[in-house]
Write a structure and sequence with these properties.
Helices cover 44% and strands 11% of the residues. By secondary structure, it is α/β, with parallel strands linked by helices. GO terms for molecular function: carbonyl reductase (NADPH) activity; L-xylulose reductase (NADPH) activity.
Length: 195
């Protein structure tokens, strides 16, 4: 649908390769950081490898890619918008999600600091915080009917999010319709956090 979009296939944990590829791809006006991993382990069984991989993808990659893009925006004097895809798990403890909840909480705070520091450059930064989304990862982690029923029962709207629910929220935050919104988290959780 968008022939001007050129995907870049990168290991975001490789800072040098990311710097070279993303740095050569600009100029940018908009950025969505959506890469994430969810390695689910009980707290007492969390492995170093799971923690390091989650930090690399869920937090460090967002920081690094955002730095590259924001520097380009500032150098060109361009206003812009960055949306980081977080999670309801940044706000609520979930069993077996110690690492995921922690990295998403860190992402929310990173986004607020980014909003504060990039605001004077006319760059807005927000997060969307969805409930379980019916992506491949969502289906893998929530395919057990007993596990999913317990979560759905805590969502007042009684369902998990579809991809379009999240996409439409991101499009709003990227658009001029949210021109006065920065440092905010838009919950796309069907009311999970109020239940």
């Amino acid at each position: 649908q968008c022939p001007g979009i050129e995907p870049l296939c990168l290991d975001l944990a490789d800072w040098d390769a990311t710097e070279a590829a993303v740095g050569a791809a600009g100029p940018f006006e908009l950025l969505v950081n959506n890469a994430a991993v969810a390695v689910l382990q009980p707290f007492l069984e969390v492995t170093r490898a799971a923690l390091e991989r989650s930090l690399d993808v869920n937090l460090q990659a967002v920081l690094h890619v955002s730095q590259i893009v924001a520097r380009q925006m500032i150098a060109q004097g361009l206003p812009g918008a960055i949306v980081n895809v977080s999670s309801q798990a940044s706000q609520r403890a979930l069993r077996d999600h110690a690492v995921y909840c922690s990295t998403k909480s860190a992402l929310d705070m990173l986004s607020k600091v980014m909003a504060m520091e990039l605001g004077p450059h006319k760059i807005r930064v927000n997060t969307v915080n969805p409930t379980v989304v019916m992506t491949d990862m969502g289906r893998i982690n929530w395919s057990d009917p007993q596990k999913s029923a317990a979560m759905i029962n805590r969502i007042p709207l009684g369902k998990f999010a579809e991809v379009d629910d999240v996409v439409n929220s991101i499009l709003f935050l990227l658009s001029d319709k949210s021109a006065m919104t920065t440092g905010s988290s838009l919950m796309v959780d069907g009311g999970f956090l109020v239940s």
